[in-house]
Structure formats: structure tokens, C-alpha cells
Amino acid sequence: MSSRDLILGRVRRALADVPQDDTPYEQAIDRAYLREHGDRTTEQTVDLLAENLADYRAIVHRTDADGLPGLIARLLAERGSRTVLVPDGLPPQWLTEAADATRVPDRAASTPHELDEIDSVVTGCAVAVAETGTIVLDGGPDQGRRRITLVPDHHVCVVRVPGQVVSSVPQALERLTPGRPQTWISGPSATSDIELDRVEGVHGPRALEVVLVSEE
Amino acid sequence: MRVALFLTCVNDTLYPDTGRAVVKLLTRLGCQVDFPMAQTCCGQAHYNTGYRHEAEPLARHFSDVFRDYDAIVTPSGSCGAMVRELYPRMGERARAEGRGDGLATALAPVVPKTYELTEFLVDVLKVTDVGAYYPHKVTYHPTCHGLRGLGLGDRPHRLLQAVKGLELVELPGAEECCGFGGTFALKNSDVSAAMGADKVRNAESTGAEVLCAADNSCLMHIGGTMGRLRTAMRPVHIAEILASTEEEPLA
Amino acid sequence: MSGTFVGMPAFPKAAHDAVRNKTLRGNLRHATHTIRDKRARAVTELEDWARLREAGKQIKDHTLRHLDRYLVQLEEAVTAAGGIVHWAADADEANRIVTYLVKATGETEVVKVKSMATQEIGLNEALEAEGIHAYETDLAELIVQLGKDRPSHILVPAIHRNRGEIRDIFKREMGEWGRPAPEGLTDTPAELAEAARLHLREKFLRAKVGISGANFMVAETGTLVVVESEGNGRMCLTLPETLISVVGIEKIVPTWQDLEVFLQTLPRSSTAERMNPYTSMWTGTTDGDGPQTFHLVLIDNGRTDTLADQVGRQALRCIRCSACLNVCPVYERAGGHAYGSVYPGPIGAILSPQLRGTESEIDASLPYASSLCGACYEVCPVAIDIPEVLVHLRERVVEGGPVTRKGAKVVLKPAKGHAAERAAMRAARWAFSHPGALRTGQRLASRTRRLHPRSLPGPGQAWSASRDIPAVPAEPFRDWWQRTHGGKDDAK
């Protein structure tokens, strides 16, 4: 007998007490919990996102479409970034003023060591969650492969507000497509492993800058 | 109201003063108190040590003794929780073992009318000021089964705050277990003693003269630790404080 | 479970030394109290916490009750998404499968995301025996691995170490394993985290094989979820060419929507954060992004035996948050090593004796490693009634009875060493069933009270070694009552 059949057989015998007409999934779970917490205007939800991002040590900037290229250029310059990773579908106008940084395309052939030499990465995002201060990447054209937002030490993530902002985790999951590889990011990398107190800055990017760009 | 005092075997044998205090207090508040002489033990020690089947006859006996009273009052959070929380579970388990509804049916009558003392005062008699007088600095330790099993909440605090002359001070780490835990105190005596010592040190830090609780089993452990650590504090059951008056102060 | 723990002494013996270790007591007290208060604040932020907790419990219970169906659904979804599913009935089989898969890549080293399942099966030792080096990359796991130590906490395996001890381990050991600790390393947490970053980076960048567990597996989509903080998880899950995930069969949730409950309750319960820094979700393989070969190894290793017990099966709801450890007064004083298992604390006390059976000395003692204070149940985000299961397992130890072991029904004998206790419990039950006998005993105790010693012999020493014995009163209450209230003596 295969281990698969062995385990499934054990499971079935273990559940001999469960009746054939056991409550179906749809009725077994009481979803009386909230879809979002609190009552906020759209503007307040964006403010909450900014507040919670900052609370976990992300650096938050706010601008509009006209100000975005200048802001990104400044953020890269302030870090002294000479190279910047660029996902294929990043809107070209975002980087029009970042003249000093060499653009490096997101390529399947790049090795981890090559990525480690790159100073910064600029991406968009799929959705952002206000209540938890989270940005979610799902490998969309303006976000690229998962590893490009991991190995470089400086991540600039652009969130279109209010369009890409939701209040809560349940609302975020509704917007996302399960099959896509996802990375949920809440602040720069951190650890609680020393005396159960949080310290920022371990393996992921130690600097996370989130740009909230208002849509027209 | 015809109230039965379910004193518990520990109080009956070792802490008769607590029993006398409950009788005095409830009589003063207008209850007709009876102590059914056939009462013995609710079976908690058996149940919690893994001897559920030995506890079953004791639970049946409890129900036989107490079922005809309007209310059953006990000065013990853990024995109260045994009847209210665990008697129904014992009935369910017997049913799951294919032994029918007999046990569940036998125990059902006593479950809803068993009250821990402070619950009975606040919820049934609807009093918080029981006319007590106790001119001492007191800190209160909420025992685990009263706190989490029965959900006594702030009832003991409200009763103590209404006692004339009593200064109630907050106990740091109040909701942490004192380390008694029935047979745990013997089977894991090192950890139990360490928990007890921490509880006593926290109590000492309040500057109170008295540590008060609603369960003498825990007070036996805390008091025994206080004695060994040569602490000047003393353990007192809440019933004895609430029974104390200006005319008849607690000895 | 892991051979590391074979021959562990019973809990009280192990705790005896831990209680007297001042450094350990101080480290645990500091860490658990820090996180305890933070968790309480993080939970209070959500007004619907009780409803989320109930929904989490219901999702897990429903899944367990239909686990066969959801396992098959998961297998289909993972396979359709490009993954390869393996089934392992026990630790040995799981280790054989993983070793075979690693060898097939030709690699001799792997990077690992912190995973309870691989610790449980002793994977690192099994790989080492076949010449494959497994590098732990979670900071606390690294501390444990470098210190040749054992884990003592589910979330923070090195919780028993303070910053000074961690610095000493890094300075002493890092050079043996790869890049040495920086010169002049101090004990500030930020510098220690930086030292770990530098030490592990070369391993991440060259790794061809990653090994992980998973916090959740979604049956309908085949998605796996890893919740982490440091980014070591992302490194292991995305940089290597091959990913092997070893996951207990109970980690399934039926639908994508179900994640909305656990992604709210898990971070707040474990690190007391609104959300942990990184959560990775992957479904099979994705062309050109991340590992192009993905193996999922589903392990039983005692889980189906646990599932067969109607009271004990609730332990399989556990999402490994460790809130119960952080709030447990016994864990705080005894430390995690005393539990003799990779699963310490209250959840370990109900999980280990079910996964491994109650036959060994340590496993038979674990159900008693609790004062039944109920703090664990109160904080559990999936409402596991740990005290209920502890008492249930105590019954299994003292009474024996029918259980399932390796899928077969067997009848356990009562454990040895409880004979005197069993006799005492029976005698007490007899006395309590005969109020007259109880009363005779009480009177005897009262009359001889001046003769009672200050310390007790035999098992009573366990009490009197640290606590005074209560004085027996001149008369029991029932005698006073009869004297003063003239109660009809129906005590026959």
C-alpha cells in the first residue's frame, strides 16, 4: 500500500464518528467578524495606512503624479544609489528624473550575487492594507520577480492612493488572485528573536520607502 | 430563599471559620441557610488528577444531596467551577462512551443553581455593600478557576470596595496563578513553590497586611509559603472579611 | 519525533534544575512578560477578536472533520500548479524522501526556513548523516544551531538566551560555520541582527535547495503560506532552484477566504504585531519567478492517531503562534527544555504525548506539567481547551484504555508509578461516599492535632519542603454546625 493510501485510510478510520450529513463548509463557519474595523472616510483610510506603515518603520512619502519622478530621483540620490532594478512594466515616467542611477532590468538569468550588487529597487504594488500597514506584491508587471524586492537593501514602493488602498485583510484577499506568487510586506525586515523585542533590519531590505501617490 | 451551603471538604476539615463566616453573612442578609450534613466532596481532585470515573459517584452523591435547594452557595471558585463547568462535561463524556444520558440527567439539576459566594451576593441577592467593617489594608488575588472558569470579573472587588474601613490595593501580576493547582503542588512541587514565592513577593510589595482570595485551597498554598518565607502578611478568605462587622469584628 | 529528545527525564526532574537557574529564570521572565503585555494590546485593537477566534476554531474543526477530502483536493491543486506531492507516514519516511530529493539535485548543502515539522522529524540530523549540511537561517534557530543547543520555544527557539550569551555564541562559533562575527561585536540586538545578516548572506546567495514548512495550505488553490519576520524565509523560498516544503497534514484550510481569519489572528498572537513583516504565498511553481521545482512532503507522524481521539484532536487546530507559552506560569519557570520536545509549553504538553504516545517517562509526565490555571486557553486564537485535554491525557496515563497508535487501535495499560495514588484516590472516593467515615477521619485529625509534625514524611515532603502545613482546627465545621444549629445528623 502506498503511504498516501495508508494515511488517507488512517484519516478515514479516525473520523468514524463524523456523520455523513455533517454540517457543510458553507454553514460550519460563522463569519460574523468584521469586514473592516472602524468607520473611516477614504482620506482617513489613506492616513491610517501612512500611520501604520510608519509605525513599523517604513519611511512614508506623499506626492502626486507630477511630483513622483522628482521624489523617486531624490530618494535614490539620498541613498547614493548608482544602480536601480526596474521591473519590465514600471511606468517609464516614474524614473525620468533619476538620471544618476543606472537602470538594471529584471531578468530571469540574473544570479542572486548579481542582484546583491544592486543598490535599490523601485516597484509598484497590487494592493495596500491600511489597518495593518501592509503592501502586497503579486508579481504584476510593475512589481517583477519576488527576489528583486528582496536582495537589494533599499526598496521604493509606489502605492496609488486611494485606488490601491483597502482597509482590511479580508478586503485585500478579495482583490488578490490566489494563483499569483505573493509577498505581503509590513515594514522593513525585522526580528523579535532576541529577548522577544522587535529590532528592524535583518535579511530583507533594511530601508523600505513607501510613496503614496495621489491619483487625479 | 432556602440556601444550601456547599462548604467543600477542604473548608469543612481545615477552615471551619470560613464556613461560620458564610453562615453569618448570608443569615445577616436574610437567607435561610442550611448545611446538608450528607455533603462530602464534589470530586474535583479526582477529576483533575485523571480519575474521572472515581469522580462520577461523588458527583451523583452531590446532586442527591443538593438537588432540592433553591440555591447552592460555595465559598470556593474551583469547586463552584467543578459543578458548573465540569459536571456537564462529565455527562457528555459518559454519553460519548456509550453509557447513555443517565449521568447527564442526574447532574443537570444542580448545575444552574450552584453559585460561588461573591456571584451569589452580587447576582442573586443583588448587594455589593454587605454592611461589613474591616479596618485593614487588603490586596485581592483572583484565583484561576473563579477568574477564568466562572468569570467572577470585578464582583469581589466591588464587594471589598464597599467594606467600611478597608483599603484595597492592587496586586501586581494579580491574574497569574499562585501555583497551587491541586495535585500539581505535589507532583511539580518545585515549579509550584517558585510560583507561590513570586505571588507572595508581589503581595508583599503592595504593603498590604492581608492577602484576600475566594478559595482556601489557594490560600493554604499562599499562606504556607508566607509562613515559610517569614512574611508578616496573612491570608484571609473573602467570606471572613465580608462577615466582619463593627459589632463583631473578625477575630 | 527527533532522537535529540530520547531518554529525557520526567518533567518535574528537568524542572527542578531549571527553577534554580537564575539566569534562565531571568531571561524567560523578561521575554515572556514583554510579549505578554504587547499581545494583549494588539488583541484589544480588534473589537471582533472573539468572533475571529471562534471562526478560526470552526474553520480548523471543519477541516479536521473532513481531512481526507481536503488532502485529496490539496494534492490535486498543488499538482495542477506544477508541484510534486509526497506522503510520509512517519518521521523516517519523511527524512528518506527529503534526503532522496536533495541528493537528486547533486547538492550537499541546503538553506532552511524555520519549521517545526522538520524539527519534529529530526531532518537536520538525518541529512547530516547522509553528508548534507542544513543551515538554519532564522536568527533564533541560528543561535540554537551555532550553540549546539536545543530549541526551547516555538516562535523563538533561543528564548532562553539573553543578548550577552548570544554575542558569546556568535563570536565563538560563526567562524566554524562560515563568515566569522564582526570584530568588536557588542550585545546590542541591532548589532547581533547585523552579524547574522552578514553571516547568512553568502549561504542564501549560493543556495540551490531550500527547505521550509508552511503555516497554511489552501486546499482549493494549492497555495502555501509562510509567515515570517526577517526575510530569511523569502530568501529560502525564492532564491533556490528547488524548494522542498515539509508540512503536517493538519495545516490545511479549505479556501482562500479562510486566510482572512488567520492572517489577522496569527501575527497578533505570536509576535504581537498587526502584521508580521513578510508573508509569502506560492502556488506550485511560477515560470521565471522563484524555484522551478517544488516538492510538498505531507507528514502524518502521529497526527492521524491524534485525530482519532475525539477530545484530543482539538490540539491539531494549533497554528503554532506560541501565545500559550508566553502566558504560561509553568513554562516561564521551568523553561522549554524541561518539556523534552520541540513542542514545549502548554501546547507541547498536550501535543507531544499524543504524537508520540504516553509510554515514555517524559510523555507520561507532561499532562501533569500544569496547574490548570487556564491562561493558555484564554489566549489561544483557535480556542484549544488545553486544560480539558491535559485532564483527558492524565486519565489516559492513570486509567489506560483504548487509543490509536500508528493507525491501529490498541488498549493501553495504566501507567506504572501511579499505584499508590490510585489506591489513595479510591480510598478517598470511598470515604467521600460515606459521610460518616469522612467525619470519623476529621474528628481523629482534630483530636490528634497537637501531635501533628511540622514537616511531612514520604510524598508529603513535596508540600512541606517549601510550605507550612495548615493547622487542623479544634473541630471540623460539621461538628460546630451540629452543636449550634442542631442539624439532623443524616451522615450515616
Helix content of chain C: 40-55%
**Form type of chain C:** globular
The CATH superfamily of chain A is known as NagB/RpiA/CoA transferase-like
Describe the sheet with the most strands of chain A.
Answer: 6 strands, parallel
- What are the secondary-structure elements of chain A, in order, as H or E? HHHEHEEHEEEEEHEEEE
Radius of gyration of chain C: 26 Å
Number of domains of chain A: 1
**Looking at this structure, what is the CATH superfamily of the largest domain in chain C?**
NagB/RpiA/CoA transferase-like
Tell me the CATH architecture of chain A.
3-Layer(aba) Sandwich
Give the total of beta strands of chain C.
Answer: 12
Structural class of chain C, please? alpha/beta
InterPro entries (chain A): FTHF_cligase-like_sf, LUD_dom, NagB/RpiA_transferase-like
Protein name (chain A): Lactate utilization protein C
Domain LUD (chain A): 106-213
Organism (chain A): Streptomyces jeddahensis
Describe what this molecule looks like in 3D:
The complex is a heterotrimer of chains A (216), B (251) and C (492). Chain A is an alpha/beta fold and 216 residues long. Helices cover 25% and strands 26% of the residues of chain A. Chain A has helices at 3-14, 25-28, 42-55, 68-78, 112-116, 169-175, and strands at residues 59-64, 83-86, 102-105, 120-123, 127-129, 134-137, 154-161, 165-166, 182-185, 190-194, 197-200, 207-214. In chain A, strands 1-12-7-4-2-3 form a six-stranded parallel beta sheet, sandwiched between helices. The model of chain A has no long low-confidence stretch (mean pLDDT 96). With 251 residues, chain B is α/β, with parallel strands linked by helices. Chain B folds into two domains: 2-124, 3-Layer(aba) Sandwich (Rossmann fold); 137-243, 3-Layer(aba) Sandwich (Rossmann fold). In chain B, the strands form two sheets. In chain B, strands 2-1-3-4 form a four-stranded parallel beta sheet, sandwiched between helices. A four-stranded parallel beta sheet of chain B has the order 6-5-7-8, sandwiched between helices. Chain C is built from 23 helices and twelve strands. The model of chain C has no long low-confidence stretch (mean pLDDT 93). Chains in contact: A-C, B-C. The interface between A and C is large, with 74 and 105 residues. Chain A: This is Lactate utilization protein C. Chain A: It holds the Pfam family LUD_dom. Chain A: Residues 106-213 form the LUD domain.
